[in-house]
Backbone:
């Protein structure tokens, strides 16, 4: 499969702050990839570099096999939609759509009009007078109707209400099926998008800590719960992402269990439950992961 985004040993520093630290990964053609991590982890900085809006301190990045910085041929194939998007004073929704139709060669005007009606976007209103939800709707309309070969969403749908977000996810999947493209989604709403994702990148304190298919991650962690002593004995020697206690009962979230391990936990009278992608990411980024060793 063709590689659309290739990042190699990428580092970005702002003075003493290292926003992205030696990150390497690829994004393949016609996939939906989640770029996940806590606030300040380096997600937005990474996306700005990918889309040619900032310089790297060291390392290399290529889009469609070429460096993106000041490369119109590459950037015309890329659509970057972010929640903090700013517009010129006086710009109305209709102006945003008009400019988008000029910029993106695969722009679908009929799709844009359909989406505008569904999301009830007031095109005649100035962008700075729109509510957060209305401005978010403009962004997702542009992102979907652009049909750009590489489309990157940096939380623009966070301003939508739950009904509108679900409509966005449904329309994204439907259009992706008919018109495949490469999509990168950065979001805190991990449980909402988990079923959309085919690949997952997790960045923490500037470092890439997970680069795996979503299928491999599903079921890669398990929560074991039961009497404290039994849980503690089972967890000994395993990588523990999270723990909890309540009276004489305890729970641990562990990785790397085989079917035989799960069977052994059940035979020991312990409850065994799968861990969602969101729980897994939280466990990996909250700083509690550790190796339990025998005393």
Residues:
């Amino acid at each position: 499969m063709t590689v659309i985004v290739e990042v190699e040993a990428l580092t970005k520093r702002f003075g003493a702050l290292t926003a992205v630290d030696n990150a390497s990964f690829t994004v393949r053609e016609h996939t939906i990839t989640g770029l996940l991590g806590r606030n300040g982890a380096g997600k937005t900085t990474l996306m700005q570099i990918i889309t040619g809006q900032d310089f790297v301190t060291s390392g290399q990045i290529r889009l469609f096999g070429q460096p993106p910085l000041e490369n119109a041929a590459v950037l015309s194939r890329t659509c970057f939609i972010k929640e903090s998007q700013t517009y010129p004073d006086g710009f109305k929704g209709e102006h945003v759509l008009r400019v988008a139709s000029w910029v993106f060669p695969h722009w679908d005007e009929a799709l844009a009009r359909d989406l505008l009606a569904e999301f009830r976007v007031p095109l005649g209103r100035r962008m700075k007078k729109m509510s957060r939800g209305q401005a978010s709707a403009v962004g997702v309309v542009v992102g979907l109707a652009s049909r750009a070969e590489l489309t990157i969403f940096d939380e623009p749908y966070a301003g939508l209400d739950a009904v509108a977000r679900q409509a966005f996810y449904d329309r994204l999947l439907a259009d992706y099926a008919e018109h495949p493209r490469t999509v990168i989604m950065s979001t805190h709403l991990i449980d909402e998008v988990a079923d959309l994702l085919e690949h997952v990148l997790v960045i923490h304190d500037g470092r890439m800590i997970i680069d795996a298919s979503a299928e491999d991650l599903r079921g890669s962690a398990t929560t074991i719960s039961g009497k404290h002593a039994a849980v503690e004995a089972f967890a000994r020697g395993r990588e523990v992402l999270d723990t909890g206690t309540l009276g004489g009962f305890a729970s641990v979230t562990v990785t790397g269990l085989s079917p035989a391990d799960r069977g052994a936990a059940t035979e020991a009278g312990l409850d065994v439950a799968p861990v969602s992608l969101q729980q897994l990411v939280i466990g990996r980024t909250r700083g509690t992961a550790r190796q339990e060793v025998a005393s």
Summary: The chain has eleven helices and 14 strands. The domain at 3-216 is CATH 3.40.50.300 (Rossmann fold). The longest strand covers residues 3-14. The chain has two domains: 3-216, 219-291.
